[in-house]
Structure prediction request, 295 residues.
Amino acid sequence: MKLIRLLPVLALFLVMLVSADAQIAVDISIKRRLFVRHEPVLATVNITNNTGRDINLEDTKQAQWFSFQISGEGDRFVPARNLDYQLEPLSIRSGESLKRTVNLNELYSLGDFGIYRVRANIYFADTDKYFSSRPTHIEITEGRTLRTQTVGVPDSQPGGGQNRKFTLLAHQQGEKNLLYVRVEDPDDATVFGTFAIGRIIDGVPPQMQFDSSNNLYILQLISQRTYALTTIGVNGEFRGQNHYSAPKTRPYLRKQANGTLQLVNGQRLDKPGDPADLPPVAKLSDRPVALPKKE
Prediction:
């Protein structure tokens, strides 16, 4: 069965892909080209029904109706994490266009550095054909490590007794220098999440401190006199971000007697002057069956 599932990814893609101006038009868009390793890669696929009638897209025993063709250097195909995933059928009226956005990192193994070529493919069982988008390219790279620290997971938390490695990374995206946080198990290399949490200003290193439960707090300058405070759980959960103004004195984190952290010399902003730019999404380690979501 798995061999049959692989055929669309390999040989069938070479002989059955139909151009995007055919009965079903397929377009793919990815907003950025550069991504940090293990960062969510969000791809939006637009599907237009040009058949002249209402259609149903659904899986068959031979193929899934919604998939991607991803190849790395040397035309090496990137396999799906789960060859047997299932999708709910999709009905599209004649002339209608629908969009789906998925995290490619949840569906495919994109952990290696390099340039990837990505196509979206729609299989239409009525014609036994694949309809393909034009290819787009992304590059998986790594940020510059600012700081790492390994802490233990409390017994009261999932994974109690294990270790978690937290890494702060800086990565240039156009004119912005962005701060990333990666959470992983240093013993088996499982990555629980890689988050972009906003810009950083050169010359002002972010502050990194843990509370008594080993949740990470990160305080960073994001614009003139404006700071972001982000909390990441010990198992990679994104727990929120708030913004603070500090017009006179640089703020800092202070641990209280009960083990919690307090921000000193900062006033919380209801409407932050500078957003984090790239909001975090679900952690990679969840790896759910990433069903396309209707927009």
Summary: The chain is about 5% helix and 45% strand. The mean pLDDT is 85. The first helix runs from residue 2 to 6. The CA atoms of residues 26 and 114 lie 25 Å apart.
